[in-house]
From TrEMBL:
This is Transcriptional regulator. The lineage of its organism: Bacteria, Pseudomonadati, Bacteroidota, Sphingobacteriia, Sphingobacteriales. InterPro entries: ArsR-like_HTH, WH-like_DNA-bd_sf, WH_DNA-bd_sf. Gene3D superfamilies: Winged helix-like DNA-binding domain superfamily/Winged helix DNA-binding domain (1.10.10.10). It comes from the Bacteria. GO terms for biological process: regulation of DNA-templated transcription. SUPFAM superfamilies: Winged helix' DNA-binding domain. It comes from Sphingobacterium paucimobilis HER1398.
Length: 171
């Protein structure tokens, strides 16, 4: 659905990366490596999204970082659209409400790089996690979204690309 509206795969990947979670940020070379794309393609899209006000450019640590502009009038709408596109908005809400003391929820696999493959992979970490509930929730999510959902309590090997969907505040 969204991939037919936004025809640039690079732009779609960037929107997913930055709008799935307002805390996500990245720099040019890191994003290019993460997406396995040229720095020129990434730079072009980052510049356009920044000029339009969707991203904020910040200089620091000898690198220029980008993040979503949460003050932009369309931030909430774009984030909701990305969550709906990924099909994870309802899953995350249920997991946070009932799965225990969740510390982090991470999206990885195809959807983390902007590929709508029909297989959503999510890592849930925390204390006293109700694994039986998570398995049940994954089954319900599969039927609801008509996509395969894999929930993990431990990282399955090395995760190349990931997007943090939820991070518990460490106050």
């Amino acid at each position: 659905m969204l991939d037919s509206l936004i025809t640039s795969k690079t732009r779609l990947k960037l929107l997913i990366k930055f709008f799935v979670s307002a805390s996500n940020r990245g720099y040019l070379r890191g994003i290019a490596e993460e997406f396995n794309e040229s720095t020129n393609a990434i730079r072009k899209e980052l510049n356009q999204l920044t000029e339009a006000g969707y991203l904020i450019r910040e200089e620091g640590e000898q690198k220029v970082y980008y993040r979503a502009n949460s003050a932009h009038a369309l931030f909430g709408s774009l984030q909701g659209l990305i969550h709906h596109f990924l099909g994870i908005d309802q899953v995350i809400e249920q997991v946070l409400e009932r799965a225990g003391d969740v510390e982090q929820v991470v999206l990885f696999g195809d959807y983390a790089v902007g590929v709508n493959s029909g297989h959503i992979e999510v890592l849930v970490t925390g204390k006293d996690i109700d694994s039986a509930y998570l398995l049940q929730a994954a089954g319900k999510a599969e039927k609801l979204l008509n996509k395969r959902v894999s929930l993990y309590l431990e990282a399955p090997g090395q995760i190349k690309t990931k997007i943090i969907l939820y991070q518990k505040d460490s106050l």
